[in-house]
Amino acid sequence: MSRSAIRSTMRLTIPAALALALLLGVAAASAGAGGSAANGASAEAMTMDQAAAVRRGVQAALDAYRERAAAGRWEELMRLYADEPRFRWVASGIVEARSVEQIRKYFAALPPGARVETTFQDTEITPLTPGAAMVTTLFQTRLVDPQGGGFSFGGALTMILIERPDGWKILNGHSSSPARRVGSGVGTQSP
Fold it and tell me: How far are the Cα atoms of 22, 44, 168, 175 from residue 64, in angstroms, in the given order?
């Protein structure tokens, strides 16, 4: 997978400090909403079967995301996002969306027939509670415009997913693409 960044207008995704804050918020919200934390369950207390179930559910959501985006089925894709006030999507340090409606508008503005093909590499799904998980992965995304346009970009992606009665949902995410330091020629991001 290429690690080179192609600058684009398509930026969707949470800096590490914000991810940690949202992560802590997820655990607190689960406890308050009758979630697993209210039962005393924690990442350490999860059984192997519970952790495996979380991984299967989250992987199914990631697979559904890739399938729906590649087919240009935007409304089905929107159902994979948590339509909640805590939703955030950050890209390279910029909050790109604070609601699922903002994500919906982005996809609706794509050219008719456009598709978004994403591949994941080195994906790690970390169960946090029976109802929450963190995903870290490298990604490569290609916007395919049937009228000849399009672009691609890639980098690193982190997401927090939460389980709801109708399936696993993306509560927040952060993506970043490698950036070159001025004058260095090195393809790493500045700290």
Answer: 24, 28, 10, 19
Q: DSSP letters along the chain, please?
A: --------S------HHHHHHHHHHHHHHHHHTT-GGGGT--TTT--HHHHHHHHHHHHHHHHHHHHHHHTT-HHHHHTTB--STT-EEEETTEEEESSHHHHHHHHHTSPTT-EEEEEEEEEEEEEEETTEEEEEEEEEEEEE-TTS-EEEEEEEEEEEEEEETTEEEEEEEEEE---PPTTT-------
What domains can be seen in the chain, in order of their start residue? Answer: 16-176 (3.10.450.50)
pTM of the model: 0.72
The predicted-structure confidence for 56-107, as pLDDT tens digits, reads as follows 999 999 999 999 999 999 999 999 999 999 999 999 889 999 999 999 999 9
Query: Which amino acid is present at 111?
Result: P
Question: Rounded to an integer, what distance in angstroms lies between the CA atom of residue 112 and that of residue 103?
Answer: 17
Q: Secondary structure of 128-174 in the HEC alphabet?
A: EECCEEEEEEEEEEEEECCCCCEEEEEEEEEEEEEEECCEEEEEEEE
Sign of the alpha-carbon dihedral angle for 13, 17, 21, 26: positive
